[in-house]
Amino acid sequence: MAEHTRFEKLVTDAKKNITEISPQDAAAKSKSGEALIIDVREKDEWDEEHIPGATHLSRGTIELDIEEKVPDTNAMIICHCGGGGRSALVAESLQKMGYKNVLSMAGGFKAWKNAGLPTTK
Q: The pTM is what?
């Protein structure tokens, strides 16, 4: 239990430094081509089900791969994970790398599905 609490504290601290976006707003920005949705979950989670048009860059390697995938540091990037914790940490990390327009999707993939937004396998 203690470790879980530490993780939550890390996430709470990260959320103070980042901007969250609702799944509905994320869907609209993705549809209009304004933003790129990046799924930072593990590959098995992605393979099971994901957001159509999203890009998979797992949390473990995103800092290594992001510059190649998204060279423009002004691009709007919306990160999401399963529940909103991991993506908050990723968003904070990408901001430290100089990305100026990074958002984390509040509630993660769970919230996306609960909102009745489309998914694909």
A: 0.94
